[in-house]
Amino acid sequence: MSMPLLKVEGLVKQFPIHGGLLGREVARVHAVDGVSFELAPGETLGIVGESGCGKSTLGRSILRLLEPTAGEVSFEGRSVTRASPAELRALTRDMQIIFQDPFASLNPRMSVRDIVGEALVIHKLAGNAQQREARVVELLETVGLSADQMRRFPHEFSGGQRQRIGIARALAVSPKLVVCDEAVSALDVSIQAQVINLLEDLREQFGLAYLFIAHDLSVVEHISHRVAVMYLGRIVEIAPAKALYTEPRHPYTEALLSAVPIPDPTVKRRRIPLQGDLPSPIHPPTGCHFHTRCPLAQTAQCREQRPELKQVADGHWVACHLRS
Ligand code: SF4
Q1: pLDDT of residue 185
Q2: What is the pLDDT of residues 13-25, one digit of tens each?
Q3: Which are the contacts of 68, defined by CB distance < 8 A and separation ≥ 6?
Q4: Which residues form the ABC transporter domain (predicted)?
Q5: Ligand 1: distance of its center to the CA of 184 in Å?
Q6: 185-240 pLDDT, tens per residue?
Q7: Which residue owns the Cα nearest ligand 1 atom 5?
Q8: Domain extents in the chain
Q9: Nearest to residue 169, comparing CAs of 223, 108, 120, 109?
Q10: Which CATH architecture best describes the domain 6-94+175-318?
Q11: Rounded to an integer, what distance in angstroms lies between the CA atom of residue 63 and that of residue 73?
């Protein structure tokens, strides 16, 4: 890969838990536990895993909406983690986020014109009110809305339309990277497909790169060039999308994929049930975090030693002592 757009190295995010009379730190939630990857310009990396695996925390720590505990993030060679407030403001022009619940992320008292135009004002991207309004109309039309909807308020739109408003707001500053944090998870399946198609068109039109975070493997399959699977704060497998779906190597990915329905009823897939619940990220299992639920042999090495990501095929990396 030439110069990556985004480089994440050993990213860690822990949340302290305070307790007792003195409010001392009594434990830590290990939400993101040493994540590294690179993203090329115009690339879509899907990030999947069960609820609580740290994928949303990862996206927010990359953008410094949450302060990382350790590790390094750089964007086009510029450090995000060590950026001053002024440098970070400049970086946010290039790195935007779309949230899962567009209703919660859109100010109910602001019209669509003001919601989409706000970023233009903050970043001084539109000269006068007339130019700003023209740009808002252009953005709304880009995402499939119309100029006459500009004076309406978020509650007057459907879920899919509200997500389009969120996308228009993100696009207002002409970003190079958009973190889509469960951006379609709250939508009906048919609306999900429309929004995914829109995001795909916008990627081609503007050369955007996406970090596409979802809990459902089937959602990220078609939009992603590569997919990373997370388990308890760590990436356990990362591969080109086709390889991951046809030749998964990590037992956790195999189990997740075995639960995805296949549209062709003649094709049978063996279901691999996951044992037990996701362990607490406050006290994650030692060694391989997955060893308490792994259907493969759980060796002493599995219980004691963290498996590092190792390349098993071109661009295909797996963190498993028995599969590398
Ligand atoms: Fe299972 Fe061991 Fe591989 Fe972890 S390292 S996934 S416990 S076989």
Answers
A1: 86
A2: 999 999 888 889 9
A3: 11, 12, 13, 32, 61, 81
A4: 6-257
A5: 31
A6: 888 888 999 999 999 999 999 999 999 999 888 889 889 999 999 999 999 999 99
A7: 320
A8: 6-94+175-318
A9: 120
A10: 3-Layer(aba) Sandwich (3.40)
A11: 9
Question: What residue's CA is closest to ligand 1, atom 3?
Answer: 320
At 106 the pLDDT is 87
Of all protein residues, the one whose alpha carbon is nearest to atom 6 of ligand 1 is: 320
Q: Which residue matches tokens 């060694």?
A: 287
3-state SS track over 291-308:
HHCCCCCCCHHHHHCCCC
Percentage above 90 pLDDT, the chain: 74
Cα–Cα distance for residue pair 214/56, rounded to 1 Å: 9
The pick from 294, 306, 323 for probing ligand 1's pocket by mutation, whose C-beta has the most ligand atoms within 8 angstroms, reads 294
CB distance 215 to 185 below 8 Å:
yes
Q: Where are the alpha helices (DSSP H) in 189-298?
A: 189-206, 217-220, 241-246, 251-258
Q: How far is residue 41's CA from residue 38's CA, in Å, rounded to a whole number?
A: 10
Confidence (pLDDT) at 39: 98
